[in-house]
Amino acid sequence: MAEKNDGIMETVKTIFWALLIAGVFRSVFFQPFFIPTGSMKDTLLIGDFVFVNKMAYGYSKYSCPFSMCPIPGRILGSEPERGDIVVFRHPTLNTDYVKRVIGLPGDRVQMKEGILYLNGEAAAQVPAGTFEEVFERQGSFGTVPKCANAPVGEGGICVKDRFTETLPDGVSHDVLNVETYPGMPDNTDVYTVPAGHFFFMGDNRDNSTDSRFDQRAGGVGMVPFDYLLGRVDRVMFSAAGKRMVYFWTWRSDRFFKKVE
């Protein structure tokens, strides 16, 4: 009986230390994150599995699971650069989001007829063909994409215009456009980013809930530095199906793909 109890205790200790090591690794170095929505297409697709670099911007209480880190403010902090893809905690919904840093503290941000303006300067957009995908329910949420060629039937090809956008400091990335709307999200007021905050937008500009939308209306608003969890540098794995185990839906061309 004593040997049996000793075996149980050894198993409990092994599980405890394994969980502790995994928790420390997740809190300090890299956190796995699964892309559930299409707001960052075509840079990140629904079903992409990424590791978030927790060391990139330092640590706050939100760096630990359940926001349990006993850290006042932020330590070892390094501010993100414009164009970084960041996972952050929504300031009011306690949900993790992934978007691109567009506005830094003090910046003035505005959208006019689908064109981004930073501090009064337009971010150049150059046509980069189209982005095509099958019109079907995607991912665990079962969402369907917005299409520039709507209406599209189930199984048809959904098309969006793609542009390469270059920010005023020279960072380039692709953005998608469905159509130019007379109001939000393609035409906005001028937003001034407060000190210690950042302005985020999705690359799928017409299908992204981001800093263009106020938190009181379900949007993101300006995100305080303490809520940033880390930077996304690379897609490690990708699957187009509802479950990772559906190997026939794996996108092998996206394994270990660098994002920018």
From TrEMBL:
It catalyses: Cleavage of hydrophobic, N-terminal signal or leader sequences from secreted and periplasmic proteins. Keywords: Hydrolase, Membrane, Protease, Transmembrane, Transmembrane helix. It is a single-pass type II membrane protein. InterPro entries: LexA/Signal_pep-like_sf (IPR036286), Pept_S26A_signal_pept_1 (IPR000223), Pept_S26A_signal_pept_1_CS (IPR019758), Pept_S26A_signal_pept_1_Lys-AS (IPR019757), Peptidase_S26 (IPR019533). It is found in: Membrane. SUPFAM superfamilies: LexA/Signal peptidase (SSF51306). Pfam families: Peptidase_S26 (PF10502). Residues 9-235 form the Peptidase S26 domain. PROSITE patterns: SPASE_I_2 (PS00760), SPASE_I_3 (PS00761). It comes from the Bacteria. The chain crosses the membrane at residues 15-35. Its EC number is 3.4.21.89. NCBIfam families: sigpep_I_bact. Belongs to the peptidase S26 family. This is Signal peptidase I. It comes from Sinisalibacter aestuarii.
